[in-house]
Write a structure and sequence with these properties.
heterodimer, A: about 375 residues, alpha+beta, 15 helices, B: two-stranded parallel sheet, 3 helices, 7 strands, elongated
Chain lengths: ~375, ~150
């Protein structure tokens, strides 16, 4: 496996460059020790763990009613998805019923979350490639503007803008308030129109094409072998989307397209996410149109720590988050706390591709590639 | 290759026990077969997608290693499980078969102290290099002090 960590710190012609952990394009706390020959990367040592909080040990010490709010702190840019994965794992073991209205609400929040998360990805990624895009922060400010509108919806729903605690075992904790549906419709209508503007701004810019096309190519074989998922996997030609392949939470009720690109480069990943934006909007409209009446949880609101006991057993719940497969492997011993919980963080597996694809790139490409992977370090380091 | 064919194929391998549940296909494997079964899953059963690898500490009964691989075309998964004898920490590495096992095994070493024989670069990944102990072991108390931190 010399290609993974082929670093020669002694070489006279080589320069070892430390990138991060406070590098602005690291999207968090990522450190890459790059070995360079001129401008070309010849070795990569990826250093992670700066944001480690030992979520898995925490989960073993917190009750099923406590941890969902903590779960949102793994991937804090897509908190709804990790919460959902955790409660779904507990529901699978306990075979707890989830009312249809709760399932639809989960779908709607997951898709709104995808839009918010992709907005942040597009904005920061384009800012990374700054100079080439005529001013740098332009797209970033536009995307943040739209993301705020989605966060307003979350705030109206749960009272929080980033970490929600929306899910509970057996359903969800909040129902949509008065007037929320109309606000949601006008928000997604607006974002849909703005997407055309983003695309026109980027795709008609030759510098954008130069910096993304043919850069950071991931082959189909490598993608599966390393286990990357989400837009990266679909950008490398594999039509694998858990919402379609292994539907959960009533996703089989909704019409949507799973975008696939075959080039495997940064531009392919960009295209996949741009289509996903629109498909998420399409799913949200279907949920709003068909939202069933009824209870939002099969279980009462949280009153005590011992309230949720999960029978002995194991489950692996998988959710298609904005970055790919968010998996929660849960082992229960029959008490009110998990015996063991493992996060399969989409960002962790996606980031593991970097040492394989950065070798041979220019230093400037490292920034573009890292942004196209869209890692969130809360989820990498957990 | 369908899930049913995969199940039958795995059942023919000596020493491998296939659990009866429908999904995933859970196989209990002996340590000496660990790499061979992974290679069979990848090359013959088409489970080319490496999902995750982790461990469970069963206290007095020792550690159990769990690896999950997917066949994305036929939509079935194989969950490979292997018990390590109590007090043992050695385990063969899957990196020669799946490159995705690299970081997962490093994390497993970091958190459980499992020494993956044949891993190209087995060092801590999430915790600092000078960290003492392996926090996800059940013997590691959640309030273990770490000067200068509490």
């Amino acid at each position: 496996m010399s290609d993974v960590r082929a670093i020669d710190y002694q070489g006279s012609e080589r320069l070892t460059m430390n990138m991060g952990p406070q590098h602005p394009s690291a999207h968090g706390v990522f450190r890459a020790i790059l070995t360079l020959e001129g401008e070309t990367v010849v070795g990569v040592d990826a250093v992670i763990g700066y944001l480690h909080r030992c979520h898995e040990k925490l989960a073993e010490n917190l009750a099923y009613v406590q941890y969902p709010t903590i779960a949102s702190k793994t991937d804090y840019v897509a908190a709804m998805c990790s919460e959902a994965a955790y409660v779904m794992a507990a529901e699978q073991i306990g075979q707890f019923d989830v009312p249809r209205r709760a399932q639809y609400l989960r779908v709607m929040m997951a898709e709104l979350q995808r839009i918010a998360s992709h907005c942040l990805w597009l904005g920061t990624w384009c800012m990374d490639m700054g100079g080439a895009l005529g001013g740098g922060a332009t797209i970033f400010l536009y995307c943040i503007r739209e993301r705020e509108l989605v966060l307003d919806l979350f705030e109206a729903l749960v009272g929080a803008r980033l970490l929600y605690g929306f899910h509970q075992v057996g359903g969800v904790r909040y129902d949509i308030p008065e007037g929320w549906t109309a606000q949601c419709r006008s928000t997604i209508d607006l974002i849909e129109r703005r997407l055309d503007e983003y695309e026109a701004m980027l795709e008609e810019n030759p510098f954008f094409a130069m910096r993304t096309k043919g850069v950071g190519t991931i082959s189909t074989e490598l993608a599966q072998d390393v286990g990357i998922s989400g837009p990266l996997l679909r950008g490398s030609g594999i039509a694998w989307d858990l919402r379609r392949s292994l539907p959960y939470s009533s996703y089989e009720d909704f019409q949507f397209v799973v975008p696939v690109e075959t080039d495997g480069d940064c531009f392919a990943r960009y295209r996949v996410r741009m289509v996903e934006f629109r498909q998420s909007i399409r799913i949200i409209r279907q949920v709003l149109d068909g939202l069933p009446e009824g209870p939002i949880s099969s279980r009462p609101g949280v009153k005590s720590l011992a309230q949720v006991k999960v029978p002995k057993g194991e489950a692996y719940a998988r959710v298609e988050g904005p970055r790919g497969e968010v998996g929660c492997f849960l082992v229960s011993d029959g008490s009110n706390k998990p015996y063991r919980m493992k996060w399969r963080g989409a960002s962790f597996s996606n980031l593991a591709i970097l040492p394989h694809i950065l070798v041979g790139c220019g230093v400037a490409d490292v920034v573009a590639i890292m942004g196209s992977v869209d890692p969130v370090f809360g989820e990498v380091d957990r | 290759m369908t899930a049913e064919q995969a199940r039958e194929q795995l059942a023919t391998v000596g020493g491998v026990t296939v659990a009866p549940d429908a999904h995933p296909i859970t196989v209990h494997v002996l340590p000496e077969q660990w790499v061979d079964v992974a290679r069979l899953a990848k090359d013959t059963l088409g489970c080319t997608f490496f999902n995750f690898l982790t461990a469970i500490d069963w206290k007095a009964e020792g550690l159990e290693i769990v690896a999950w691989v997917d066949n994305l075309e036929a939509k079935f998964a194989v969950e490979m499980r292997m018990r390590i004898a109590p007090g043992e920490t050695a385990c063969p590495s899957l990196v020669p078969v799946y490159r995705g096992a690299n970081w997962m095994e490093r994390e497993c070493f970091d958190m459980f102290g499992v020494r993956f024989a044949g891993h190209p670069d087995l060092r801590r990944i999430l915790l600092a290099d000078d960290w003492e102990g392996h926090p996800l072991l059940k013997s590691y108390a959640v309030d273990t002090p770490h000067p200068p931190y509490r």
